[in-house]
Amino acid sequence: AQKITQTQPGMFVQEKEAVTLDCTYDTSDPSYGLFWYKQPSSGEMIFLIYQGSYDQQNATEGRYSLNFQKARKSANLVISASQLGDSAMYFCAMSPSGTYKYIFGTGTRLKVLA
Amino acid sequence: NAGVTQTPKFQVLKTGQSMTLQCAQDMNHEYMSWYRQDPGMGLRLIHYSVGAGITDQGEVPNGYNVSRSTTEDFPLRLLSAAPSQTSVYFCASSYSFGDSDDEQYFGPGTRLTVT
Known about the structure:
The complex is a heterodimer. By secondary structure, chain A is an all-beta fold.
């Protein structure tokens, strides 16, 4: 079965600290993409970062990096130097290439403390 | 570009009523999809389309119909609304399906309440 698991319903982090949001996935497809999205309290979905299953290097986008461990089937999001504006819900998603279906996790709500 | 637009933003229906949620994109994207978001359940795929005239079911298709007569538009029809369909609905599009760094662009969402 294709599945994304986010085991942390909620997280707190101090401003300027780094935080890791966990994501594990399950798929039998050899080719897939992994995505992270941010959903602020205003409700829109914002794309953050992408990792392809054949990418050798971990993806980075500014303060966001994706810690991709293929053997462990994990794709954790690391946010460095947290800001108050990072407080939001974060979703991990997967796109197994043979399915045409994006699969989302249940999300992690991050609260950044001043 | 307007991106992905959805109408209406809010809707209240009575049980048994039908309605259509509109979705349009102006980016010439081939792939479009509908999701529902419920507390604690993330986003669940309802239906998707890989191009005009081609649609298929997602994870939770029961009670919903879609069609894709043009590249731009992908309406979602609720046939006979039920309280279990109370949710926030998102439409999304991408140039192709995610085998590259081709992220989905999401509309602002429609908050639907069925009484």
